[in-house]
Structures are given as C-alpha cells and as structure tokens.
Amino acid sequence: MSASDGVAARAVDVWKTYGSGDAAVTALAGVSVDLEKSRFTAIMGPSGSGKSTLMHCLAGLDDVTRGEVWVGDTKVTGLKDRGLTDLRRDKVGFIFQQFNLLPTLTAEENITLPLSIGGKKVDREWFDVVIETVGLRDRLSHRPTQLSGGQQQRVACARALVSRPEVVFADEPTGNLDSQSGAEVLAFLRKSAHEFGQTIVMVTHDPNAASYADRVIFLKDGHIVRELLSPTADEVLDTMKHLDAPDFEHSAVPGA
Amino acid sequence: MLKATIKSLLSRKLRLVLSALAVVLGVMFVSGSFVLTDTLQRSFTDLFSSAYADVDVSVSPKQEKGKQPEPLTAQAVEDVKSVPGVASAVGNVQGSARAIGKNGKVITTSGAPRFGANWTGNGQEKIRDGRAPQADDEVILGAYLATTGGFKVGDEVSVLTLEPKKTFKVTGVYDYAGGRESLGGELSMAFTEPVAQQLLLGQKDAYSSITATAAQGTSDEALRDAVAAKLGSAYDVKTGETLAKEQADQINEGLKFFNYVLLGFAGIALFVGVFIILNTFSIIVAQRTRELALLRSMGASRGQVISSVVLEALVIGLIASVVGLGAGVGVGALLATIFSSFGGTNLELAGIGVPMTAVISSFAVGMIVTVVAAVMPALRASRIAPVAAMREAATPDRPLTKITVTGALVLAAGGTALGLGFAQASLPLIFGGILVALVGVALLTPVLAKPMVSLIGRLLSWSMPGLLGRRNSSRNPRRTAITAAALMVGISLITGVSVVLTSATKSIEKLASGQLRTDLIISGEGQFDGQPATFQREVLTQVEKTDGVSAAFGWASDGVLQGDDRMFAAAVTDVPAMKSMFALQPKDGEIAPLRDDQIALPEDLATEKGWSVGSTVTLQLAKGEPRTFTVAFVWLKSQVLQGALVLPESAASSFRSNQIGQAFVQVDQGVAAADVQKRVEPLFADNPEITVQDRSAFVKQTTSQFDTVLLMIQILLALAILIAVLGVINTLALSVIERTRELGLLRAIGMRRAQVMRMITVESVVISVFGAVLGLLVGLALGVATVQALKDQGISEIGFPWATMVQYLVVAAVVGVVAAILPAIRAARLNVLDAIAYE
Ligand SMILES: Nc1ncnc2c1ncn2[C@@H]1O[C@H](COP(=O)(O)OP(=O)(O)OP(=O)(O)O)[C@@H](O)[C@H]1O
Ligand SMILES: [Mg+2]
C-alpha cells in the first residue's frame, strides 16, 4: 500500500501510547486520515486531544505505537533515524509556534537552511517568489533578534516552503501573534496551497484561523470525531462547542 | 539561603563536576609533590642512618674552602685506636670506581654513586658468595653491581678509577642485612687496601675517613670529644648520627628543590584551573540570573546573593580538595614506587606518609582558587537589577572596553616586571611577570576572539554544520576567550622555552661553524657522581703525534678561589694552539705561552674584576697554599672561551685531577677529519668514557640535552593542558545544554546526527586552535624577550621552532576534536521533540 495519487500524507489506524502500565496515556486511538495534495487542512480539538501528537507522527518526529504513516510515496513507519532525518529535510516543512529560527543565522540563511544542510542548490526563482509572497525582501540580512514576532513566523513559513516539501506542518503557527500578523501568516499559508499547490497541515485552537482552511478535522481523546469542508469561523466555533458536550462520543465520523 | 545553595548545587552537579575536576587535578599535583618528596626524604634519611648504623664516631679531614682535603694518614688511624674508650677503629678508603659491563660500555646509574672501597671486613657488608680480595688483581663486588652487570665469582671485570682501565678477578659478592643488594642503588666494589689507596686516592697509606666504635660504657658524644682532643683541629670528628643526618640533609636539600619545581608546575596547572572555574561560574550565574533575581526580588540582599555563590564555590572547593588530596597521595605513592623500583635506584621506601604540608596546602589551594574564581561572577550576579533579570534571562552583550583596557594595563605591568626581572636576573620577578602578562593577554582575548575566531573558522566552515559551529564559537566572545586562554597558558610556556632552546642551539651551531676551528673534540661523558671523566697526558701527546694531526691541545679544569669568589680555571697545554683554534684576539698583551706564574682572562672578566695586564692575583687552588699570578694577557670577548681563567699547564698539578678533561684537534689541510678520528679513537681504548667526536657530532651532543629539557617541561605542562581540555569540554557541554532548543530545531528540519556532531566539533576545534594560536604568539614574544635578555650569556641568534609550533597547532586541533566527542554525542542523541520543548 502506498499513498496513492492525490494524497500527500496518510495515517492508517494510528495508535500512540505514552508510558506503560498504570501511567499509560493513549494519545491517538486508531486515527486514519488522508491529507490531500494542494489542500490546506486544519486540525482542531480540545487541549490534550492528540493534535500535536498526530502531527508529530505524520511528520516523522515521533514513532507510532501501531498503524502506519506515509508521506508521499515514503512509508514513514519503520524508518531509522537517518531515514527520518532525511525525510524531514527533503519532504517535510515545519513551522512551530515559537522559536523557529537560529539566532546565529540571518533571515536568508534561516530560510535556505534545509537546503544547505542537504547540500542542495537554492532555486533562485522559487526563492524570489516565496520571498515576494511573504514580503521579506528588505529583511533578508537581518538576524532573528532584529525581527518582530510576525516577521519571524513569516521567515519560518518561507523556510518551510523553499524546499518544496511534500507537506508543510504548522503547530499553532499564529498562537503567539497578534490578530493582524496572524492574518498575514494565514493568508500566506492559504495562498501557498491554492496558488503554488503546496499541501499544508495546521494545528490550531483558533476557529478564525481554522476558517482559512479547506478542511477542518476535529480530534477528541485521540479519535477523529468530525470534519468540516471550507467552514466559516462560526461553524467551527459551533462544532467545537458540541465537541465539549459529554454525549459527543465519536458518534459521527463523516467523510472518513 | 544555605538550603537554596545546596539545592541549586545538586541540580547542576554534572556541570560542576568538570570544573571541580580542574581543581582536583591541580590539588592532586600539589599534594602529590609533597607526598613524593616527603616519602623520598624519609627514605633517604633511613638509608643513611642504616648506612652509618655501625659507626659511632667518624673522622674525616677538615674541609677547607676551595681546597681539596688532604687524605688521612695511617698514623691518624693509629692515633684514634689509642684513644681510651675506642673499641675499634678502621681506616676507610673510598673513591670513584666505575665498572665496565660485558658489552664494553661503562655501567651507569641514574644518580646513585659508583664507588670503590678497601675491604675492611668489619662494615655492614656481608659476603654472599666467594671470599674477600687478597691479591692486587682481585675485587669483591656489591651485589647490586654484580646483578646489574651480570658478574659472577670467577669472572673478570674491568674498572675505571683515577687510573685507566684495569682488569680484576671477581673473588666474591657482598650484600647487606636482609639480603639487600645495595643501600640506595649505588654500584660499589672493594679492593685490598693498598690497591684501593693507589687507585682511588692515588696515594699510599692514605685514608678517606676513619670510623670508630665506642667501648661499652662510652657514649658516642664522649668518644667524639675524646677523639677530637687527641687528633687536634685539622680533623672533622662527628658522631655517626650527625654524619647520617648531614648526608641525608644534603640529598634532601636537592629534593626540596625538586619539590619546588613540581610545585611551580602545579601552580601553573592551578592557574589554568582558575580560568575554567571562572568560566563555569560565569556561565552558571548567567543561567541562574533569573533565579538569583527572584531571590533578590523576594528580599535577599546583595550580600546574600554574593555569599550564596561564594558558598557554592566553597563547597566545590572543599570537595575538590578532599578528592585532590586523596588522588595526590595515590599519585605520590605511585611515583615514589616507580622511582624506587624502576628508576634503577633500588631505594627501600619508607612508608608512604601524608605530610601536614600536603594537607594544609591542598585545602588552602583548592578552596582559595575556587573562591577567587567565583568572586567575580558573584559580584556581577549581585549587581543585576531584579526587574531587568526577571524580564530577560539572556545576558546582554556587555561592551568589552573595560576588560580590554584592564588587560592592556595588566599586560604592560607584567611586561615591565618581566623586563625588570631580566635586568636584575631575579627569577621571582621573571616568573611573576610572565604570569601577570598571561593574565593580561587573557583579559585581551575577548576582543581578539571575534576577528581571530572568524578567521580560523573560515578554514573550517565549508559546509552548513561548519558555518554554524564557527558562528556558535563567536557567539559568546568572553566564554570562548577564557576557554581558549586556558589552553594558551600551557602552549605559550612551552613555545617560549622552545624558542629559547632553539635559539641556543642555533647560537651554538653558528659558533661551531664560525669561531671553533677544531676538527675533532675529545671529551669525557658527563657523570652524575664526581667530575667528568678525564684521561692521561701521555694520551694527548700520542694524539699530537698521530698521522694527519696538525695541532692538538687540551686542558685540565677545576674551580679555584679568589678571595671568596669561585672561578672556573683551565690549565691549558698549548696556548698558541688554543689561540688559533679558538680564533682568540688579544685585547691587551700578547697571546703567548704562559710562564708558571702567569694567567690570562677574557675581557669581560677583566672588566668585572678590574684586572689588567700586570695585575697580580692570588688564587687558592685545590692543593697547596694560595699562589700569586700575574695577568699576562687579556683576550677580546669570545663566545668559545668565556668566563674562565687560563692557567699555565703546570698549575694542573695543584688541581684535584691533573689529567686532561677536554682536548681539541686540528687536522692537516686536505686530510679528512673522519680518517684522523679513526686513528685517534684507538688511543682511548682504555678510557671508554672518553669520546672523540667531529665538530657536528659534538654540537649535536651538546644541544641534545635541550631536547631532554623540552621533553621534561612538556610532560610537566601536560597537566595544565589537560585541564585546559577539560575547560573546552566544559564549555561545549554547557553550550549544548544552553542550545538544546536550537539543536532540536536543527534536527527537526533535517540535520543529521553526524552533521550535529560535526557542528560541535568545528566549534571545539575553532576554540582550541584559537587558544593554540594565541599561545604560540605569546610564547614567541616571551621567547624572543628572553633571548634578547640572554644575549650577553651567549645566545646570539634567534631561532624559531617552526616544526614544533606546527606540531602544537595540530595537537590543538586534535585536542579540539577529542574534547568535542562527549558533548557532540550528547547533542546528537537529544530527543528532537524534548529538545524543542526544552525551556
Ligand atoms: N511525551 C509525552 N509523554 C506522555 N504523555 C504525553 C506526551 N506528549 C503528549 N502526551 C499526552 O498525550 C495526549 C495528547 O497530547 P498532545 O500534545 O497531542 O495534545 P494537543 O492536542 O496538542 O494539546 P494542546 O492543544 O494542549 O497542545 C495528552 O494527554 C498528553 O498529556
Ligand atoms: Mg499541541
């Protein structure tokens, strides 16, 4: 089995348990999901529902207890450290909530870091497109400490895109930003999906942020419990409220 | 506050272990030196008290300044025998005697004496095999000599004494109580009395000393006084106990010096340790800024913050001192054992003891060093305003102006002290100046760090990991600088010494090829016991007559006294030959053969003494009454022959040895020196301690001792360098902890483990090479300054040990790689997700 055409990343019955015995915590309890190419997908759910865990497993940052994970044509499950490292370098882009950049490198060096680590040449044309889109042209030679939080996140976005990865994962990329900067970053992520065909997966707590996505997946207690396509912020908020209701026990899993 | 201190100590124990290790190693060196010398001193004291156990009273000729003591006569022995209260009295003969081994080479020791004696039969020596010597060609050997040389009863053994090689038959072997082969590694043998007198003292019926035992009821002191009364004032009469003590004291004086040398190196190691601890505390304080600020905002006073840091230092210092003391006792005991069993000394060790000095100095040094190193960071910590620290934990880049100005001033002070030290030839000033200058340079290093690190780093940063490593190493110039400065200390000292020795070698070589116009040099090997080997005048005459020799001269040498001044004098066989071979130029008078009452001297000595041609000079030679000489000529300053008086050949008969110590040969034009050497060498068949060398071999032999000196210093400084390496490891380990999140990020975006390790390694190598480069530069400066100061002492050339310096640089790079191993592995093993989440 492989991730068939049109799917950038796929989880098949993924279980993730932390610890063992009495202290065991099941973070993911049989999650199966296909993340289509060129789509902007958001993952939502209450705190502790397993959003970050799912993302880490998909991105090869963490191993799964059971099940399989694919990125593009690569079966992630079973890869050794070297294979995982190369996968992250070549096929995956990352945007973390904070601390995305190396303080010793300039913005430009940070952006091209995955390429230079892999000893690859920078595609100048693509680089220029990315820089233009994030609007960082005049900040390229600055060090991260000389940039605002929003600018830093935009640098991180540019870095995630510049190597044209199979998937870009973003864990609460706007969590630390004011609404104006957050909106810029989100608009940029949506644009990358729609105009450049970049697959984006974003974890967020913010219904407004989720409304930028083409598809929103809801997690609860390690299960996927709902999903919405191109929802508005209100729809997302509404779904979240219902998620908190005690009777909402993975009753409906539409579209899985 | 104490509780908080201990808590924070425990939470960072791993980080502290490395810096404590620096103190431990330094303290270990200090206490190890004390334990070693103390053990050896007590062993030697035991040795001599057992050597003189049977001696109640000993009589020796009175030692007069500058004079060789006249041997005792047979009459003196009779006189002692006749003193009431004397149970027995024996005349002892003792003098240098060296056996030739079965391989034809003279058997040597590493410091213990080689001597012969008369077989008296009533000393502590017990015959183990065979019998005592009875005929003129018989000898009995000490067991240690027999074992070392592989001699058995019935073998023949050749022996060098005052006379050239003589062969004896071994009739027996003796040892000491309990089957001990020797008392302290000495190689000894005994002849019949007349033979011993002839060979060892060169005189019939002469004795070196008389030992007497007291009859029952007579105390040693009473006997001593009775013997002294009988013999008169021309004799030294001592009890065996006093004699043992005096001789032990003499050796122990030497050991004391040895101890000082070791302590000096221990001091350097500790000095380096201070840098490491200073660095660790700075880093810890920086990391704890928030914690300390919290304490401050909760109402802790500045004093409390300072004392909390100092308290930490005291605890570390205390622990490190205890561990260092323990390790030092172990090391001292180990070295003492090595000395006694492998050093060829065969010394019976007194039990290993821990002298009070070791304990006191260990604790004093360990605690003081740690506290001194912690005070500066503590002061800085206390100055942080609570609010500022709470807001941002990161230490801002403080400007380097103050530290740089201070560094320049300290360096200038050190340089001045060094200059004064050279001018006044004062060792404390010189060493103090060097240390202060090193501190000055260390203070200047932060300013140098940025440009130099980026220069060095450029060579290593061809890939992304390399670039990151280089950037990381210049991230915190102070930290990099202190770490590198620690390495600088050791390397600069070695380089400095190396420059001086290379310059000395070069000067000697230049001298030899320029002013020394001799083709062959005949000299005796240096010996530990007594004087260098000498040979007979007749042999020199034969050399002169050898085919192809155009001229030859030699000298007998000895110390002579002029008033209270001891001077070196050479009784030269042929002044005109010397003039031409040494290219001597007259300053005053004519360089011509000396009459029996004439002397000559070099220009600087003449100026120093205020003598000129015609001055009369009274000299006390080793034998006879003081003699008056007239200055016949003064020669222009010459590098070949300096600081020595030239005496007429006849004066040699008043020297301790009338024989030739060194001779120089010029060969006929067109004749190969090597051919003449082949013809001359057989003349010395009976003098295996004498070598005939051509000029370059002689120069090589003379300069090869420098290599030994350099090696010794390298070994002793190795500990200082080891501590510096600990410092590099420490800094890297701390950096890895500080940059955990960055490492996590790098791994998350696809940096391989090997690349992470390469990044850390580059950082490490950059720091080490930076330290080495600094060390080389400072060492060159120190070396050149010393050479300049020693210009008058004959180091006329400056030579740079390029090859050695490149070696040090390579070693530093290797050190960098090695130091990076553990931190790099740690960094590579970090769990990516944990690292990203690390606070
Ligand atoms: N390293 C770990 N060890 C043990 N349990 C863990 C670990 N990481 C996550 N968990 C647990 O797994 C569950 C899912 O955690 P996860 O971080 O995926 O939640 P999340 O949905 O991202 O929450 P949040 O919105 O708060 O970030 C939680 O119960 C959490 O306590
Ligand atoms: Mg999360």
TrEMBL record, chain A:
It holds the Pfam family ABC_tran. It comes from Lentzea fradiae. The lineage of its organism: Bacteria, Bacillati, Actinomycetota, Actinomycetes, Pseudonocardiales. GO terms for cellular component: membrane protein complex; plasma membrane. This is Putative ABC transport system ATP-binding protein. The keyword Phosphoprotein does not apply. CDD domains: ABC_MJ0796_LolCDE_FtsE. Residues 9-246 form the ABC transporter domain. One of its GO terms (molecular function) is ATP binding. It comes from the Bacteria. Signal peptide: none annotated. Keywords: ATP-binding, Nucleotide-binding, Transport.
From TrEMBL, chain B:
GO terms for cellular component: plasma membrane. The chain crosses the membrane at residues 257-284, 305-338, 358-379, 400-423, 429-449, 480-501, 709-737, 758-785, 805-825. It is found in: Cell membrane. GO terms for molecular function: transmembrane transporter activity. Residues 265-386, 715-831 form the ABC3 transporter permease C-terminal domain. It is a multi-pass membrane protein. Keywords: Cell membrane, Membrane, Transmembrane, Transmembrane helix. Residues 17-229, 480-682 form the MacB-like periplasmic core domain. Its main location: membrane. InterPro entries: ABC3_permease_C (IPR003838), MacB_PCD (IPR025857), Macrolide_Exporter_MacB (IPR050250). PANTHER family: ABC TRANSPORTER PERMEASE YTRF, MEMBRANE COMPONENT OF TRANSPORTER-RELATED. Belongs to the ABC-4 integral membrane protein family. This is Putative ABC transport system permease protein. It comes from Lentzea fradiae.
